[in-house]
Write a structure and sequence with these properties.
Number of domains of chain B: 3
Strand content of chain A: 15-25%
CATH topology of the largest domain in chain B: D-amino Acid Aminotransferase, Chain A, domain 1
Number of strands of chain A: 19
Largest sheet of chain B: 7 strands, mixed
Shape of chain A: globular
Radius of gyration of chain B: 26 Å
CATH superfamily of the largest domain in chain B: DNA ligase/mRNA capping enzyme
Distance between the termini of chain A: 56 Å
Largest sheet of chain A: 7 strands, mixed
Oligomer: heterodimer
CATH class of the largest domain in chain A: Alpha Beta
Shape of chain B: globular
Strand content of chain B: 15-25%
Strand order of the largest sheet of chain A: 7-8-9-10-11-18-19
CATH architecture of the largest domain in chain A: 4-Layer Sandwich
CATH topology of the largest domain in chain A: Metallo-beta-lactamase, Chain A
Structural class of chain A: alpha/beta
Radius of gyration of chain A: 20 Å
Chain lengths: ~350, ~525
């Protein structure tokens, strides 16, 4: 049995470290959970103790309740738990997101959580960490996924808003409350007034409260005078698509913002006015460069295209295996809805 | 190509026909003349033949990107469109090519006779000089269709909005004989190359589904009853020795049915006749599925003409030797139609629609129930005094279709769709019980809402047991009610039966798998139908 099998075990409840007696982003309630970031498929209810980054703490408390037993440390600092050295390293995915590094008797395992290698305007950029075993996500693990630079996206999004304004339309961007919403705010900052849905507004307040600076936004509440919104920008969670609340806004042009928008079929499926390829995950080149930079001798590939990506890694000489987890986009979509209890009326 | 690229981006994202029409209008207001003609040509099937094989394009892309074939195929199966897969896989452009649509089309036409080596140089130069969206369009210009939900009718409606010219006339103009090189946009839409007076059709008269009991219609003697045929409605327009065939979707389909043009050439008189175009062999009406092989073909080959011959059943006559008959009572029009058909010798595949003989309303129930045996959809009831209405009008014409047959079956395979449906599992295979095992009975693609498809796709992602290329074998758990129009014994199918026109009637979330039909209970429907 190799050493990494002793440091992390893949169990029904999640990824477990027997020496440290803690889990990484478990999907069932456990004693001690170390959390990579605040998305609902990674940070779940019911753990007796939580450990996360300083920047994630307010997000977890906002989503899981102020009464949870939670402790946080800053990026790069370490905490030793039952002689396993645990530290967080920026993952560039959403505010507060981290890769989790475990070290025990000189052997290093890194769990990526979700990550994005390209820098953006708001998230602490991804940094690669050397390790023996790397557990990587693979949400966009196909060579058809290649993202544009943040500057290009900014131009694309802002010129769409300008075109809408010329046609007297209000621009609505749909994206998850945590991550995508703040990213969109940063991309649209300075373009015009930005209104955000209450779910995003509340989350923003929690994030700002912990000392992180966010672009200025206003609350889009159902009783707001329609004229105030005309030709402005609204950012809302995807659950709002087709909702009564959105239908009440006159002359909207709606855009879905997601990595899946790379494919025409997906853009057309949604029946919206635009689809922008804005992803908070690594693209194909990003995944490969991240894996290579770790120098890992063993890679485990989780949620997304694990079959394809692990096969490809093996072909280019990196030992990789698939790992079944309960993370991923569909789990996230479902969990986000439950967590946020999003108001669509 | 920037304008054209923007046009495609706009129309592909929206599912609103009006937004598509507006995008075309905008394009026609600003684009250069030749480009406009190419757009019309591309969306009406006047595409030059493919200059480069898809296999070569795939090969060159793999070479350029250093991607193994299996990975290329995985990408293709996710994207669901070859031209798009290529566009997404290719590396970032190294230079910037800016040619108009007309320049590209001219280059592509010239490319056809060249060697593969020369073609490769040209294609690679284009790929590395275009951005992602333009590359996709370039690949589409080489071959396949755009699949963005633009019918000839949409295009014609846009031109009508732009020019205020009658839409049917525009349809005739753009379908007519013309070439990009030898006509101007203005001459084309003004129809200088055609004589619209000869082809002008009438709006079709349409029927509602019967919504009352037969006796409520009054006396049986006031009604003429015919079989309802399941083909495509067509108007045969014959004026001044020219023959035109219009489909109900107001498209000119003359060239698709040469045998009908030939048959109607036997008449001396001029007329406009309404009827049904059907696949027919030895006097028997074939299934609509067969007729589909004949629809929307650019070329009707001799082989296809032999495989799926078409015929025509005449329902009505709207114009006779220049006189508009539509206000005449139906019984008079019918007599005129009969006289006309008796005046010449016709091939046996062109016939009058026969009139159902009945005395009392109750007689019709058996006749309707027997419709399936002759591949008819049911009955049409027409009031003897009725004029030929414009469009759908309640009261004078009723359709009384047979109820579909249904079975409960379980999904065993799922496959992703194409075009708009490429991201979801939309094509399913269903099975019923055979002893302790399952046997495939039908494939179906339609009948579910987008929401249900999304839900099923997520389920398939979680419950796929096996993958064969794009096909997923799933746990046999989801039960559906499958409706179909007919059933016959078949040696070609493993189950021993062939279903006609199967579609999903509903998702039976309430039904457990052990309650689905057995192959024996399915076969019993054969005698029942």
């Amino acid at each position: 049995m190799s050493r990494e099998n002793q440091l992390v075990k893949f169990t029904k409840k999640g990824i477990y470290c027997p020496q440290g007696r803690f889990y990484l982003d478990p999907w069932y309630p456990v004693e001690y959970a170390i959390i990579s970031h605040g998305h609902a498929d990674h940070a779940r209810w019911g753990m007796k103790r939580y450990l996360c980054t300083d920047d994630s703490k307010a997000i977890l408390q906002h989503r899981l309740g102020n009464d949870i037993n939670i402790e946080s440390i800053s990026y790069y600092n370490s905490k030793t738990i039952n002689s396993v050295k645990v530290s967080f390293h920026p993952a560039g995915h959403v505010i507060g997101s981290a890769q989790i590094r475990l070290e025990y008797k000189g052997y290093v395992v890194v769990f990526s959580g979700d990550y994005k290698t390209q820098p953006d305007f708001i998230t602490q950029p991804f940094e690669s960490v050397k390790c023996h075993t790397f557990i990587t996500e693979s949400t966009f693990g196909l060579p058809i996924y290649n993202w544009k630079t943040e500057e290009t996206l900014k131009t694309e999004l802002q010129s769409w808003v300008k075109t809408n304004q010329a046609n007297n339309r209000t621009s609505v961007f749909l994206g998850y409350s945590l991550g995508k919403a703040q990213r969109l705010m940063s991309l649209l900052d300075g373009c015009d007034e930005i209104f955000v849905h209450r779910a995003i507004h509340n989350l923003n307040n929690a994030i700002s409260g912990s000392g992180i600076q966010l672009p200025d936004t206003k609350l889009w509440s159902a009783d707001l005078d329609k004229k105030m919104l005309q030709n402005k920008i609204i950012i809302a969670p995807p659950a709002l698509l087709g909702s009564r609340m959105l239908k009440r806004v006159p002359n909207v042009a709606t855009a879905v913002c997601s990595g899946w928008m790379q494919i025409r079929g997906n853009r057309r499926w949604q029946a919206v006015d635009a689809g922008f390829v804005v992803s908070d995950h690594a693209d194909w080149d990003g995944l490969i460069s991240a894996v290579k930079a770790t120098g890992a001798e063993q890679v485990y590939v989780t949620h997304g295209s694990q079959a394809v990506f692990s096969k490809y890694l093996n072909e280019i000489g990196i030992k990789a295996d698939e790992l079944v987890t309960e993370y991923g986009d569909e789990a996230l979509a479902k969990a986000e809805k439950e967590t946020e209890n999003i108001d669509t009326e | 190509m920037k304008l054209f690229s923007e046009l495609i981006s706009t129309i592909e994202i929206t599912n609103k026909t009006n937004a598509k029409i507006d995008a075309f209008v905008q394009y026609f207001k600003t684009a250069p003349d030749k480009d406009k003609l190419w757009v019309i040509a591309l969306f009406t099937g006047k595409r030059p033949s493919r200059p480069v094989k898809t296999t070569l394009m795939k090969e060159w892309c793999m070479e350029l990107t250093d991607i193994p074939e299996w990975l290329f195929l995985e990408s293709y199966s996710t994207v669901g469109d070859l031209g798009e897969t290529l566009a997404l896989l290719l590396p970032k452009p190294t230079h910037r090519l800016d040619l108009s649509l007309n320049e590209w089309m001219t280059e592509l036409k010239a490319l056809k006779p060249k060697s593969d080596e020369n073609k490769k140089v040209f294609v690679l130069e284009a790929w590395t000089g275009l951005d992602q969206q333009e590359r996709l369009i370039f690949n589409k210009l080489i071959g396949g269709s755009f699949r963005i939900g633009v019918s000839k009718k949409t295009l014609v409606n846009a031109l009508a909005k732009l020019t205020n010219i009658d839409a049917n006339q525009l349809m005739h103009s753009i379908i007519g004989n013309w070439e990009v090189d030898s006509i101007s946009f203005e001459a084309l839409i003004l129809g200088k190359h055609i004589n619209y007076d000869n082809s002008k059709p009438y709006p079709f008269c349409l029927a509602y589904a019967l919504e009352k009991e037969l006796p409520e219609l009054g006396k049986p003697n006031d009604w003429i009853v015919e079989q309802k045929w399941d083909g495509i409605r067509g108007q045969i327009v014959k004026r001044n020795n020219e023959i035109y065939i219009w489909s109900r979707g107001e498209e000119l389909v003359t060239k698709q049915f040469p045998e009908l043009v030939e048959a109607f050439g036997n008449f001396k008189d001029d007329f406009v006749i309404d009827g049904e175009i059907l696949a027919m062999k030895n006097n028997d009406v074939l299934l609509f599925n067969d007729l589909q092989k004949r629809l929307n073909r650019k070329n009707v080959t001799k082989k296809l003409l032999e495989e799926v011959p078409v015929g025509f059943k005449a329902y009505d006559i709207l114009e006779f030797n220049g006189d508009d008959n539509r206000e005449q009572p139906f019984e008079n029009r019918r007599k005129q139609l009969e006289t006309l058909f008796n005046s010449v010798a016709l091939p046996e595949y062109v016939k009058l629609s026969f009139i159902v003989d009945f005395k009392k309303w109750v007689d019709l129930h058996d006749i309707r129930n027997n419709s399936r045996a002759i591949n008819s959809e049911g009955l049409m009831l027409k009031q003897k005094k009725s004029p030929y209405h414009i469009g759908r009008k309640k009261g004078d014409w009723w359709k009384w279709k047979v109820d579909p047959l249904t079975i409960d079956a379980v999904m065993i395979y799922a496959q992703k769709g194409s075009g708009r449906r490429s991201s979801k599992y939309t094509d399913y295979t269903f099975a019923v019980k055979k002893d302790d095992a399952l046997v495939t009975v039908a494939k179906a693609y339609s009948g579910l809402t987008d929401k249900e498809i999304t839900e099923i796709s997520q389920w398939v992602n979680k419950n796929a047991i096996e993958r064969f290329g794009p096909v997923r074998t799933v746990k046999p758990e989801l039960v559906f009610e499958i409706a179909f129009e007919g059933i016959a014994l078949s040696n070609r199918h493993k189950s021993g039966v062939a279903l006609r026109f199967p579609r999903i009637a509903r998702w039976r979330k309430d039904k457990p798998v052990d309650e689905i039909d057995t192959i024996e209970s399915v076969k019993q429907l054969i005698t029942a139908s």
